[in-house]
Amino acid sequence: MKEALSKEGIKFASVDISSGMLPLKKFLVYRDSRPEFDEIKKQGRVGLPCIVVDDGAQIYFGLPENLEELK
Fold it and tell me: Superkingdom of this entry's organism (predicted)?
């Protein structure tokens, strides 16, 4: 994901949720409260990697076909 976003000139911040409690807790709020994660949790998956746009306005679990959506 990082390589594709960089190649398209899309600015992003990469967050390693294992780097501390704050990033982990922020991710868990999304995972535990957003319906986008329901099917992923049913499958026993975590939901990473994911792209969170504008503090959760949109969440992607892969690159969208049209990367312009991320600009």
Answer: Bacteria
